[in-house]
Amino acid sequence: MKKFVNNLYKNQALFYKVFLFALTAVLIVYLLPKGGNFKYEIPKGKPWQYENLYAPFDFAILKSEEEIQQERQQIRNNHTPYFQFNQEIPKEVKAEVPDVVYDVFPDSLLSNREIQIIGFVNETLEEVYEYGLLQANNRVEDNQLVYLRKGNEAFEISYKNILKQDEVRSFLNTEIEQSSLSNLENELLEVFFNLIEPNVSFDIEFTQRELQSKLGNISYTRGNIEQGSRVIARGEVVEGNKYNILRSLKNEYESQVWSESNYKWIIVGYSVLVALALLMLLLFIRKYRQDIFENNVKVTFIFFNILFMVLLTTLVVNFNIDYVYVVPLCILPLTLKAFFDARLGMFSHVITVLLLGFIVPNSYEYMFLQIIAGIVTILTVSELYKRANLFISVGQITLVYIISYFAFTVIQEGNIADVEAEVLLTFLLGGLATLFVQPLIYIYEKIFGMVSDMSLLELSDTNSKLLKELSEKAPGTFHHSLNVANLAEAAANEINANAMLVRVGALYHDIGKMKNPTYFSENQTSAVNSHDELAPKESAQIITDHVINGIEIAKKHNLPDRVIDFIRTHHGTTTVYFFYMKEKEQNENAVADDFRYPGPIPFSKETAILMMCDSVEAASKSLKEPTAGVIDNFVEKIINKQMKEEQFLNANITFKEIQVVKKILKRKLKNIFHLRVEYPE
């Protein structure tokens, strides 16, 4: 049991990577669509380049969106409106006829004609309410058929049969004139206007319900294709009905209900492909980026970014497929390049695009566009901390998107008339969204504790609080750090190392000297040496402690670990040679380890460059009469000694690169000492 626990502890980093790999694969598979994928691209207007295609099952031919819209419009145009007929109002009106007649007509006119007048009014009301009196006119043509609802029954009639309010007077005048009571027109009109009330209204709720019912019954298909029927032959042009049939087959294939067995096999297939893609990325990191592979935080960061892009694209596709290019996928290579390097950024981008090919439609076109855009991103953004570079790169990315889309449209449609302005707008929005990379990098720095070139640029500002404190407490050390920074930056540029990182590391590498500044020669302004009253061991202890003190100060001021690494390693495990020899003069049994820096030795190109530049710049102050030959021998001696002591054993720097660094240091020192060729008198 104890052995198992020990093995578990020793291999915990490996177990974590396996867990991270499995978790990322599961989440990505969960986000992928679970239907079947149609394995053919449908090249509208182009010849079918695959083998003869036969229907694998029965399926219906889908109508085009234009056909469906036309049917809907036709239904709306031909839909018969409904009107509600109130049957109670005519009954109430007829019941009031005698009372109204007696109120309007004087007794002299009613004598001997009462029955005739009441009978005429009732007959006329029967005609008025035969189809009803409309409350308000509607935008309906007179010849159009409408439904008149009386209770639970509906009768189809012509709209003109319904009496409108503006037609009542003329209708009554005609009826009165054609009767034997024309001499009583005024009294009769008064009776009718006191009695008549509208009883027909437009039934908008029932009309809309019936309309929606008809629209809901629209068939989205026309005709069927039987299993085994040939859908399209090789070489046939994909257009018209053939295109609709292929589109219908693809839609049916991707939307059909899969059985539990089918579903499980789809999951297995997705899992294998996703795991294979992520495994390739992991193997790439392990083989070519060993330092990143050994850092679980960095591996987590890479996998998180891939998962984030897959999630974001899935959400956009589910919301509206037309906005898929708004997703700023080029943020991925930009981010990884800012924290790591261009090669890892590009490889991760390609893996991510391959995974997204399962999600988006027209996957070939999408992958082509995104890979080209990723390449442009990697090639154009050299220094992300320069804002102008980012804006220029975003413009170039957007331009590449537009040009590629234009080319695909011309290939598929055969003309430029079908280029859609909306798609071009999505490319523009996607390009603008890429500008979010700067705040995103800042957020990542805070979450994952990493440092980018933009943060390094801020740290290189000599007006920062910590460097100002260094210039006040230890001005000589500050001047030495500036000189080392210039030398290291020049050397890093020559061997393609991270110049910004090594410059920042050089500026902060000696901040530990602020604790006891006068014990370091560059800060001693008087003839009195603070070490004269100390034993060699004590002096050496103060000198070597500036590394530990520097680490403490750096952590107190929240400097990134990548910068603190320069403080740890800039002396490696070398000895404080001056005080060691001084001790040896007094004690032949002096032990070199008592005068040795704690280490570790440099473990990268950048930290190795700093060690060389720091030693050479500090020792160059002791040169009395520097000449070109003296400087050449001086640089060779110092760096060769470091190599002999195996200080660069763990750094990934080659002999050739060390020779280049030597060459740069020699040239720079000659410029510093203003050496000139001696001309004859």
UniProtKB/TrEMBL annotation:
<feature type="transmembrane region" description="Helical">
    <location>
        <begin position="423"/>
        <end position="444"/>
    </location>
</feature>
<dbReference type="InterPro" id="IPR003607">
    <property type="entry name" value="HD/PDEase_dom"/>
</dbReference>
<dbReference type="InterPro" id="IPR011621">
    <property type="entry name" value="Metal-dep_PHydrolase_7TM_intra"/>
</dbReference>
<feature type="transmembrane region" description="Helical">
    <location>
        <begin position="12"/>
        <end position="32"/>
    </location>
</feature>
<dbReference type="InterPro" id="IPR011624">
    <property type="entry name" value="Metal-dep_PHydrolase_7TM_extra"/>
</dbReference>
<feature type="transmembrane region" description="Helical">
    <location>
        <begin position="344"/>
        <end position="360"/>
    </location>
</feature>
<feature type="transmembrane region" description="Helical">
    <location>
        <begin position="323"/>
        <end position="339"/>
    </location>
</feature>
<keyword id="KW-0472">Membrane</keyword>
<protein>
    <recommendedName>
        <fullName>HD domain-containing protein</fullName>
    </recommendedName>
</protein>
<dbReference type="Pfam" id="PF07698">
    <property type="entry name" value="7TM-7TMR_HD"/>
</dbReference>
<keyword id="KW-0812">Transmembrane</keyword>
<feature type="domain" description="HD">
    <location>
        <begin position="477"/>
        <end position="619"/>
    </location>
</feature>
<dbReference type="InterPro" id="IPR006675">
    <property type="entry name" value="HDIG_dom"/>
</dbReference>
<dbReference type="InterPro" id="IPR006674">
    <property type="entry name" value="HD_domain"/>
</dbReference>
<feature type="transmembrane region" description="Helical">
    <location>
        <begin position="390"/>
        <end position="411"/>
    </location>
</feature>
<dbReference type="Pfam" id="PF07697">
    <property type="entry name" value="7TMR-HDED"/>
</dbReference>
<keyword id="KW-1133">Transmembrane helix</keyword>
<dbReference type="Pfam" id="PF01966">
    <property type="entry name" value="HD"/>
</dbReference>
<feature type="transmembrane region" description="Helical">
    <location>
        <begin position="297"/>
        <end position="317"/>
    </location>
</feature>
<feature type="transmembrane region" description="Helical">
    <location>
        <begin position="265"/>
        <end position="285"/>
    </location>
</feature>
<feature type="transmembrane region" description="Helical">
    <location>
        <begin position="366"/>
        <end position="385"/>
    </location>
</feature>
<dbReference type="InterPro" id="IPR052722">
    <property type="entry name" value="PgpH_phosphodiesterase"/>
</dbReference>
